[in-house]
Write a structure and sequence with these properties.
Elements lengths: L6 H6 L18 E2 L10 H18 L2 H5 L4 H14 L6 E3 L3 H19 L5 E5 L4 H14 L2 E5 L9 H7 L4 E7 L11 H10 L3 E5 L11 H4 L3 E4 L14 E4 L1 H4 L38 H17 L1 H23 L5 E2 L11 E5 L3 H10 L2 E2 L1 E3 L3 E5 L7 H18 L1
Parallel strand pairs: 1-11, 3-4, 3-5, 5-6, 6-7
Antiparallel strand pairs: 2-8, 7-8, 9-10, 10-13, 12-13
The structure holds pyridoxal-5'-phosphate.
Pyridoxal-5'-phosphate binds next to helix 5 and helix 6.
């Protein structure tokens, strides 16, 4: 059998290795390949939430809103913007789910375009985009009498500048793109694709769910218009933790969001007869913001800030390269193909492997405490959350995949 690199040696020289112990469950024998769907909690989050329940919620009661909670959606948003998103203050807010943020910003964007140029009647989206993004685009197109233009990327890739250029033009109102494709892990070129949209006069909305805290993001430098993303994946905010939305400062006064609730009003506690939107990013809030999940996410943002996104990305690339090395050496002879880009520059934080028996293999692995994800039609998704995954874990997990496949062969 061909040699693979020794995981113990890789862990020994990994400058971020020690951070793994800061996560709950780090010493369990479980191999966790799903931190890109639900990140592990940080131990400090358990303490922080306990303190919050006792002291802030339990002690300050309703006074907590005035004393600090009202400012958390934008305060944590600014910090997330600085550390993870490449966004200057005043452009990011936290609250709602990704799905709701997507709806609000997609609707705001197409309505704005229609007001300024009624010939812009198309929403461009790709067939490999996440289901919620595609379904929302369909719904909004039906609601507003618009049409969808579909980009069809290759299975092991994503939206390239060539594909996008061929799809946008004077009819495009909005383009909805994922920075990292949830199936293939293709990493789209944020700067180049944003430029193509803007040159066509289209607005662009970036979905950063699979990218935030895994790959470097520079929303301001790209010239992005809008963005959304989850906080329960690489941001470890916990199940159902609130998402974030980004609206570039230059657009905030131009856009009208469709769910105008009291939390987006200019003076929340005036409870005035008519709705007047708040200035800035606050106008994109709707209802009472969920505080617990955003506190958990903030702990992860603090850790990323301590380590730096460049180091996170370097570890992520090393982990995914190692997974590909093991797959090529051990699994290719068993019929497994790598369905993610081999070029690190175009690869996000996970690696998808293709095999016709993936469904059954993933089920067996879960029973054995090895936890990858299954994705239709025949993909095993190996999610490698950079700060909570070791090289030893990658080695053990892919050895388990090999064993399962060999068993059934
Ligand atoms: C995980 C994910 C979502 C999930 O949206 P929710 O509203 O949190 O369910 C949306 N888009 C992408 C690209 C995702 O990866």
């Amino acid at each position: 059998m061909t040699e693979v690199r020794d995981p113990a040696e890789l862990d020994a020289v990994d400058p971020l290795a020690a951070h793994r112990d800061r996560f709950v469950g780090a010493s369990d024998p479980v191999v966790y390949f799903d931190g890109n769907s639900l990140g592990r909690p940080l131990a400090v989050t358990g303490e922080r939430l306990g303190d919050f329940v006792r002291e802030e919620w339990g002690g300050r009661l309703i006074r907590g809103w005035d004393e600090s909670w009202m400012d958390l959606p934008t305060g944590i948003g600014d910090r997330l913007g600085r550390v993870v998103l490449g966004a200057a203050p005043g452009q990011v807010a936290v609250g709602d789910s990704t799905t709701v943020w997507l709806y609000k910003l997609m609707r705001a964007a197409v309505d704005h375009q229609q007001r300024t140029d009624s010939g812009r009647t198309e929403i461009v989206v790709d067939t490999d985009n996440f289901p919620t993004d595609r379904y929302l685009a369909e719904g909004i197109a039906a609601e507003r009498g618009l049409t969808l233009r579909w980009i069809e990327p290759e299975a092991d890739a994503g939206v390239t500048p060539e594909l996008l250029s061929a799809a946008v033009g004077e009819r495009t109102a909005l383009v909805v793109l994922c920075h990292v494709a949830y199936k293939s892990a293709f990493l789209a070129d944020g700067a180049a694709l944003t430029r193509i949209c803007r040159d066509a006069g289209a607005l662009v909305l970036w979905d950063l769910c699979h990218a935030a805290a895994a790959v470097p993001i520079e929303l301001d430098a790209w010239g992005a218009d809008l963005a959304v993303g989850c906080s329960y994946k690489y941001l470890n905010g916990g199940p159902g933790a609130p998402a974030f939305g980004y609206v570039a400062t230059r657009l905030q006064g131009e856009l009208t969001q469709p769910i105008q609730g009291w939390m987006g009003a200019r003076d929340v506690f005036a409870m005035a007869p008519g709705y007047e939107p708040a200035a800035g990013i606050r106008r994109f809030l709707s209802g009472t913001p969920p505080i617990l999940g955003m506190l958990a996410m903030e702990d992860m943002v603090a850790l990323v800030e301590e380590v730096g996104m460049a180091a996170v990305r370097a570890k992520s690339l090393a982990l995914t390269a190692y997974a590909i090395e093991l797959a090529d050496t051990w699994l290719a002879p068993l019929g497994v193909g790598v369905v993610s880009p081999r070029d690190g520059e175009r690869r996000g934080g996970h690696v998808t492997l293709g095999h016709p028996r993936s469904r059954e293999v993933v089920d067996a692995l879960w029973r054995a405490d090895v936890i990858p994800d299954y994705r239709n039609p025949d993909g095993m998704r190996i999610g490698l959350s950079p700060l909570s995954t070791s090289f030893a874990e990658v080695h053990a997990g892919l050895a388990a995949v090999r064993e399962q496949l060999a068993r059934g062969a």
